[in-house]
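May I ask for an example protein's residues together with how it folds?

___
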Amino acid sequence: MIGEKYTYDNFVHEREIEGIKYTIPKKPPKSTIDGYNKPKHLQKFTPIKVPLDLKMWPKEEREAFIAEEWRRRKDGFWFMNNGFVEYLTGLHYFYISYWMFPIVENGVKKLGLPFWVDSDRDRFYHWQACIEDTKCYGEFEITNRRNGKSYRGLCTNYEVISRTPESKSGMQSKNNRDGKDLFDKLVKSWQKLPYYWKPVDSGETHPASSLKFQEPSKRDSKNQRKIYTQVLRSEIEYGTAKEEEYDGEGITFYLGDEIGKTAEADVHRRWYIVKECLADGSTVTGKALLTSTVEEITRKSLDNCQRLWDESDPLDKNELGQTASGLYRFFKPAYYGYRGEDVDGKPFIDEFGYSQWERARAYMEKKRTNLMGISLTSEKHKYPFTPQEAFIIDNDQSPFDTDRIYSQIDHNQSLSSSIAVPGNFSWVEKDKEVRWVPSEGGRWRVAWLPPVDLRNNVRVYGSKLIPINIDKMCSGVDPYDHKTTTDGRKSDAASYVRYKFDPMNPDNSKIFVSQYIARPPKPEMFYEDMIMQSFFYGTDILPENNKIGIVNYFRMRGYEKFLMARPEPTHTTHSKRQTEPGIPMTGDDARNALISAIETEIYDNVGYMEEEDRFAKCYFSELLMDWAKFDVNNWTPHDCTVASGLTLLAEKKYIRQKKEVTTDVPFFRTYSQRGIESREVEI
């Protein structure tokens, strides 16, 4: 929940931010909170004013002032804000009280102090939760442009290293020049700090490549020997953008700035090299902060960045209690904490720092109204409302209509999670009956189950089993390969079942109703899954037959009649002589036919349907995202795209019409996660 605010009496200490929980320290007595005795309209955060003559104060008073500032830097700060109670983490207090930041004053940019804003509050809470979690390696933040993320990162870097003895930090940006610029920004802010925040340093007024907190070389004029005082012996430096820059070197803090714009290195691989520098065996010894907007990028750099983002989901942890990357991701919508004014001159952040995010979002939506193509994609990259928008692929980089795909993704997020239910198919009696069992973590996601009389609709023909529902349903499958993808991942098997066009129920047909994405330990387990799926839906299946294992297994099990031959519209002069079931995806003709089938499907059945004034019913987010990211020059990672394309080609197979009247299927069903009882609803 963005924009939260609480009074003293209803203050909530437990906050959940982007999937992780943070517990705010116990609130102090109200009378000790800054501003408690002021009128509401005068209550707000005011940075401490460092006395110009502080060094001339009596020693006890001077040391008491500095000690209190150190306490706030360590423990945080409470203040009243227009009647609400707010808590600043120690780092947040240090940031808005001391760290110089580009601000706009009377239309002119200059260095000044950041102001308190609720979106920054939430982000610092998230960072503090990352710090306190001993299994977490840090934070991966994606947000909009001009949000101050680089300066927050630099402040975090300095705050950690300037109080930690024998520590070192490294910084990288999207290229070598930007790394240098980043370091120069840190130096400018460091130069503006009061003396009590500056540990003894090497004596350079304008450090060029590293800021070293060590004793400068001095010599006693008589004895010609060096004199040393107590120092941290810590260092802040920046490095090149290359992947191996910090290979093998232990560091306490790492700042990776603008990783979504990095084209000179594989940021995914680079992170896993850096990660080793932040641990000693299984013990996390340092923290990292990765930040970026996702713009001005190549397709490859976007994929690398998104892969790291996907591996940083705090809701997807392994048995060790860690995400795959070790990081926790943080996303802030562009309209939350958006600076500036509406057309009527009203600011999007009020004088107390609270975001008027509804008005900001409406304003930003109006900016998008007349944008199309690359211009719209660029706007979404710079000012994303969702993580999906941050990683959006432009139409010019995809064979498919990504605008329709992303609009469908946005729409699906508003739908009930019960529409596509996870679960598994299993035999009740082998080769006699299959049942559907909803289950978290299931290999399938199912949006519709056929009525009982159409389930397990299989007959014996001679010595072979044959599917009976082939006039109503079809399926395609992309078997997994034993090879790994170019980025080191193993491919999954993917399969879709499709409910064909039903003239008696046109609004609820011509859609994908089942999705399978998995990689069982043994290929035979996957092949058996496909037999159960086909048996339950009573449909045949079109495999990619470059991998012959699934064809041989179906034959061995007596399910040869479930294997679809190559559909007639995809035939070439050569392929008419093809005797093997399925279709090879090695030739240009077959590949072009598959891409064309998906292009048509997206145009006809994905996104907002203008003539019908409704959104289409494509419920599988994994499929939509795979379509959006599909690269015609590299099919290997796109199992969902290939499987869905095969299913669409299977739909083109000519089916001899039966004379008998079949039962119409007028309704779809949604299913409870608690069982298989269903109710018929029109969706």
Notes: The first strand starts at residue 14 and ends at 17. The chain has a mean pLDDT of 89.
